Amino acid sequence: MNEESFFQNVASYKFLTKKEVGQNFLVDASSAKRIVDALMIVPNEKVLEIGCGAGSLTYFLSNYDNEMDIIDIDEAMLSKVKEDFKSHSNLNIIYGNAAKYDYRPYQKIIGNLPYYITSLIIENVLVGGENLQKAVFMIQKEAADRLLAKAGTKEYAPLSVLMGLCYQSKRLFNVSRNAFVPAPHVDSTVIEIVKTNEVPLEEGASAFKLATALFRFRRKTIFNNLKNIVYDGDKTSTILAATGIDEKSRPEDLTPLDYLKLSKAIKETK
User: Fold this and answer.
1) Structure confidence at residue 17 (pLDDT)
2) Between 89 and 114, where is the model more confident?
3) Residues spanned by CATH 3.40.50.150 within the chain?
């Protein structure tokens, strides 16, 4: 099927989208190609597409000879994609739940992620993607603002800590809501996440886990927050003094490196 016919076919599926799984089908072929091109696939890399939907990204992924797993939780859409790409033996069309998937086998991961589980999927990819080299995701613009937020801003969150330690992340381009059927209420943003290997993933994951615990009470000072974790006021003061972190600072004030130092210091006192 040629490009124009394929994307006309995708648009015809708009009445089959399921709100409960956050489906909006990308019908702008130029945007779909741009997203796939950004992944910069090279031979022999194993690739995963999360949430294929009606196959907008799959269409351009199918131009590569790499082994690719294409997962979705919607069996109706999987049937469509299986039929559309049945001549591509390198594409494995799989029923899978992205929130519970094993990301270890993949070097490159791509997807148009549903808004309601964007953070969970990206967390699982970044923590579980032991062999991940690069990911390209299209997500709602507000979610991108949070993920790429810096310390000291209201959008800053634990996942920003993990991304700041083990990955280099950036906004590539925006995609208008009019590029989808049905059109969502907000525009989308395509982000790139590249593993740096500067901080071991295990250490970054520990810092992320600590940040997650402290952000549960983000209005409390770091001293009061940390005291609830180590259960000792004197030890808490010692840890903060050793890391050079102000006891009166709050979770959003700490940089990713602060969380890394804090995580290491806690382990050393046990």
Assistant:
1) 62
2) 89
3) 3-198
Query: Is residue 171 scored above 60 in pLDDT?
Result: yes
Q: Provide CATH 1.10.8.100 ranges for the chain.
A: 202-269
Rg (CA), the chain: 21
Q: Beta strands 167-175 and 91-95: pairing type?
A: unpaired
Confidence at 12, pLDDT banded by 50, 70, 90: confident
Alpha helix (H) residue ranges in the chain: 3-11, 29-39, 56-61, 75-84, 118-128, 141-147, 158-166, 201-215, 222-230, 233-243, 256-269
For the chain, first and last CA: distance in Å? Answer: 62
Fold for 3-198, please state it: Rossmann fold (3.40.50)
Distance separating alpha carbons of residues 252 and 237, to the nearest angstrom = 19
The answer to whether 199 and 126 are in contact (CB under 8 A) is no
Q: How far apart are CA 25 and CA 12, in angstroms?
A: 10
Q: Which CATH architecture has domain 202-269?
A: Orthogonal Bundle (1.10)
pTM: 0.93
Distance (Å) of CA 163 to CA 64, 110, 154, 198, 220: 28, 16, 17, 12, 24
pLDDT one-digit tens code per residue, 60-79: 999 999 999 999 998 989 99
